[in-house]
Amino acid sequence: MFYRPEDGHGLPHNPFNAIVTPRPIGWISSRGADGRENLAPYSFFNAVAYTPPQVMFASTSAKEDRGDTKDSVANIRETGVFCVNIVEYALRDAMNQTSGPWDKETDEFELAELEKAECETIACSRVAAAPANLECRLTQIVKLEGESNFAVFGEVTGVHMRDACIVDGIFDVLTFNPLSRMGYRDYTVVREKFALKRPGD
């Protein structure tokens, strides 16, 4: 099968995000200038550089109470900071609860009954129960092609890791099993790993 996205795929559901899979989930916490907290998952997310460490996530829709975007981007525009909370399998239901189209007054931490912890390098809350958190300062917001498509880039200024996840000097993801997004309503979980030696190493 071949299709041009501009012509449509002719399938019951869009296969695009099922093809680009699995994708890590950036559970983004932010705080608006008014002090309101927000927490929302984004599957268009990844790390993009080592030095300095940088991450990005993309928001691809809008809410009526936020104009051209959603709560996360609106808050980050105002304050210039955000935190990436890593999603483990055990927090899947809480993560899903925060994915709803809640109004900007809703505190998703409270909605999902998640304990907050204050970040160290930025004025923002983080998910206390997450196996890792990346505190970020905004570097740029890039308007992408299409309505309400924005890519948000940030430099990591602080890193929290659960002590039990550090095994023999490495951050071992099998101690908490990261959740990843697939297509449609599907998710997957990391339960095994293997190593490959790159040529020249």
Automatic annotation (TrEMBL):
Gene3D superfamilies: Electron Transport, Fmn-binding Protein, Chain A
GO molecular function term, any single one: FMN binding
Any single Pfam family the record assigns to this protein: Flavin_Reduct
SUPFAM superfamilies: FMN-binding split barrel (SSF50475)
The organism's taxonomic lineage, starting at the top: Bacteria, Pseudomonadati, Pseudomonadota, Alphaproteobacteria, Rhodobacterales
Name the UniProt record assigns to this protein: NADH-FMN oxidoreductase RutF, flavin reductase (DIM6/NTAB) family
Domain Flavin reductase like: 18-173
InterPro entries the UniProt entry points to: Flavin_Rdtase-like_dom, Split_barrel_FMN-bd
